């Protein structure tokens, strides 16, 4: 329809240019934001690295994560003494909920920060550990994805919602469990993988199950790579990994998934690809949990 209107194509080109310039302006304004960083012990080295790499954007304040003799928290957050440089500032908190003890300690710091007259709070929680427990199958079970979301949603307000950044959340619907004072901001690690594909001549992407394929396949469409999808099928009394779609023969393949616990399914997937003629198999997983002795 626009092609029938005089000057429509020129108008469309103009709007496209304006939108591109506006996006560039927006990105520049975002990169000028400066954050005061508070980090849990697990991310202290990352915080130091961020400050060294981008001193104009990040300033890290070391926090003392101590305990009283009775085991309760004795925490002193950095940036408050000898002068308070936290009030009125944008604050980024680097979080890691790898066990219940540290999780509770960090929630206490989040409450304290939000009651310190800060301008905004960004919580970076790369791995959401309860993402696989978003439902129950019988009465009495606790859906911990819901309880974590309740705790986040009821944090104090500093005037604007707290932004919770999570990478490759296992069940995407978890973002809608958050409400009130917290908004989920979902990111993916796939952009970190893309340069590796060309460097190592990867010509095929494999997924260990249909869920992973639906989750990630569209992120590789622009590369024109072959795709293989695996899945578990029943072989007598056992369930084995088999190829459900695609041909791995002669391909240099990388298996992509968001989460690995023991690595058993990933290993079986790789062995099946090799058995079916793949020339080389590697794997990329956003979150390697490997609990206990896995």
Automatic annotation (TrEMBL):
Domain Phosphoribosyltransferase: 210-286
Pfam families: Pribosyltran (PF00156)
Coiled-coil stretches: none
Source superkingdom: Eukaryota
GO terms assigned for molecular function: magnesium ion binding
GO cellular component terms given for this protein: cytoplasm; ribose phosphate diphosphokinase complex
Transmembrane feature ranges: none
Stored CDD domains: PRTases_typeI
Gene Ontology biological-process entries: 5-phosphoribose 1-diphosphate biosynthetic process; purine nucleotide biosynthetic process
Record family assignment: Belongs to the ribose-phosphate pyrophosphokinase family.
This protein's name: Phosphoribosyltransferase domain-containing protein
Organism of this sequence: Octactis speculum
């Amino acid at each position: 329809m626009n092609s029938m209107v005089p000057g429509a194509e020129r108008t469309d080109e103009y709007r496209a240019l304006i939108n591109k310039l506006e996006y560039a302006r927006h990105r520049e304004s975002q990169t000028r934001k400066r954050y005061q960083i508070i980090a849990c012990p697990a991310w202290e080295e990352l915080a130091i690295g961020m400050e060294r790499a981008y001193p104009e954007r990040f300033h890290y304040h070391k926090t003392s994560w101590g305990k009283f003799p009775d085991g309760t928290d004795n925490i002193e957050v950095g940036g408050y003494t000898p002068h308070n440089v936290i009030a009125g500032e944008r604050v980024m908190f680097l979080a890691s909920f790898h066990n219940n003890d540290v999780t509770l300690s960090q929630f206490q710091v989040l409450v304290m920060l939000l009651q310190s007259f800060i301008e905004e709070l960004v919580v970076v929680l790369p791995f959401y550990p309860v993402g696989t427990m978003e439902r129950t199958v019988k009465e009495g079970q606790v859906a911990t994805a819901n309880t974590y979301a309740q705790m986040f949603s009821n944090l104090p307000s500093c005037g604007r919602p707290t932004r919770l950044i999570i990478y490759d959340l296992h069940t995407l619907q978890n973002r809608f469990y958050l409400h009130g004072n917290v908004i989920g901001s979902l990111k993916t690690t796939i952009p970190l993988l893309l340069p590796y594909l060309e460097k190592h001549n990867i010509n095929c992407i494999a997924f260990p199950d249909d869920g992973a394929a639906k989750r990630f396949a569209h992120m590789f469409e622009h590369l024109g790579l072959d795709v293989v999808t695996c899945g578990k099928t029943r072989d007598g009394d056992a369930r084995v990994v088999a190829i459900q779609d695609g041909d791995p023969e002669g391909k240099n393949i990388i298996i992509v998934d968001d989460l690995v616990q023991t690595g058993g399914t990933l290993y079986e997937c790789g062995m099946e690809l090799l058995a079916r003629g793949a020339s080389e198999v590697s794997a990329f997983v956003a979150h390697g949990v490997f609990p206990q002795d896995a």
